[in-house]
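Contributing: when you submit paired examples, paste them exactly as shown. First protein:
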Amino acid sequence: MLIAAATILIGFIVLIWSADLFVDGAASIAENMGMSPIIIGLTIVSIGTSAPEILVSLNASLAGSGSLAIGNAIGSNIANIGMVLGTTLLIAPLMVHQSCMKKELPLLLVATAGAALLIIDGKLTLLDGCLLLGGLVLILWRMISTQVKDPELTEEAEQEDLPHLKPLRAWFSFAIGLILLIASSRLLVYGAIVAAKELGVSELVIGLTIVAVGTSLPELAATVASAMRGHTEIALGNIIGSNLFNLLAVMAIPGIVSVQTLDADIATRDYPAMAIFTVMLAGAIFLSRRRDKSKANHSYLGRFVGTLLVSFYALYYYWLHTTI
């Protein structure tokens, strides 16, 4: 068990560090090629923060541990809202702009409902995976086409600290980051599988807990940092964007690799819990907007919402523990 724990810990450390290298290199390459900061933020940076989940999902699926990959996707979404956003709100309250309420949040709600319809039969197939990825492509296209001309979003993107590496160093950082991402994700999956066997619990539970929390650490760091600098749209955008990628890319991978028969707990416990957290977030944003009459175009998320999210996250883990 000590070997498995050490393998997981080393895998997490290298995974998070290599994700930063990968994003820095990819963003700098794009900048050196003339890509605008807003496009870099909407594509490369958003995808980069989900790189750990994507690589873990792919390696778990190839290793025949599809439940671990699916648990990682669902658990990461729960952790992003309950742990990451909840903790961020306890540190620095967020002001949510109207564009988020009208564009990004509805997309997340639709994606959550759409993915539920695909897995309601208890299976995740190649067709399901392709439909999920197709939805991601459409959402990315819509986000870029509608938001690239948004002056407020462009101004905020220009304020964000993006890496500025010279071409040779950018390509080196990109290559090393990608290699370490692949290696560390394989190491993490190996440790998680061994831990599941030694602890006598399912790979789904390991994916929902240890792996999900670990792969959500980049989102926690990015969201807290953005909130502390006052970039509230970027902070919440990291959460919504990551959850979209988890639903439409990370969860699609197991089905594309091979047909997955889903654990019954996914439909009765874990996916409903993730959907509840998503609806809670939408409800908090809507209700806080209704109460704040002086700023009708904004919604204020404060420490009360953060306390609720963290508390419900703790309750979910307790529920998970009692049903193992």
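Second protein:
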Amino acid sequence: MVPVYSLSPRTLSLLASVSERIGEVHAAHLHHPSPLLRRAHRASTIHATLALEDNPLDRATIAQLLLGNTTEGSNAAELEVLNTMRLYDLLPTLNPFLSQDLRHAHGELMHGLALEPGRYRTGDLEIIYGNRPGSRKATGRNISSQVEQLLHFADNDEGPLLISSCVLHYGLVHIRPFTAGNGRIARLWQKLLLLRQWPVFAYLPLEGFIQRSRTGYYAALEHADRQEDCGGFITYMLERIDEALHELLSRERPILNAPDRLSTFLLGKNLHHFTRKDYRRAFPELSPATASRDLAKGVASGTIECKGTGRVAWYSSADQ
């Protein structure tokens, strides 16, 4: 069954705040970070999400593993990191609404760490909130049907995607479709749903903010179970998203030069061709002359190609 939820005034206020901050992120061109910053965020994200599962490795060690510095005979802690890294690389190919992709993701995530990775469990499962036993068991009946209903809801819900993603996260934790790794896959699946619309969620270290308040995270899950209403959990998750976006926007915003602007534009667009007007729409602070110089430098460097002249000129990426 799809989880029931109610929306409080606090939740609606957070929804407006998060939506506004996402707009600011895009206006500041922070949704496509440099490769160096992207690696740093990934190390932080993997560290936080595995720390929630009591993985003992620190962030520096995980950063080294990201660079390929593995040891012989990797232990279970390192294997958790390597599996998570591999799954993050697969994210762009996965569909959050397909159960076979969910099972495939779990298989990659828990390879060598759990019995029958990628397969739904068949028996009942004791509920644990962090390190504290819960008040119920997760039934082993109709797991496939429960997951299909939840994914169908996420695919067809007409409400705000931010809300739907939180319901999806809670629903997967509530169902616990696998014998292990359910929290990790639930957090990842919310990320996957959100990044399809907002690229910033591909690297926003949301898990770090959950890990900082892990007691609140498990308390919100337990409260939702007891109340049979996940509205409080939605509020908790929107608070963490709002905090993560606020921190991102509070950092020194990068000053982009012409190559950086063009690279950011090409990374964020899926256009066969574009005009100077399209380019200026992405950077409204630029004058027509500056936009023209940016594009001319891109042509000279071989980054883009130009057809036509003057106002009728159009451009395309040299890689297409």
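If you have annotations for the second protein, write them as plain sentences, like these:
The chain has a mean pLDDT of 88.
The domain at 258-317 is CATH 1.10.10 (Arc Repressor Mutant, subunit A).
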